[in-house]
Amino acid sequence: METSGLFIDRRDDKIIYPRKYFSSHMWTKQREEVSLFIQCRVRGWFARVRANKLRKAKNDKDAELLARQLELQENEEKRHKEEVERRMHPKSAKDFEILYNELE
Question: Is pTM beyond 0.85 here?
Answer without folding.
Answer: no
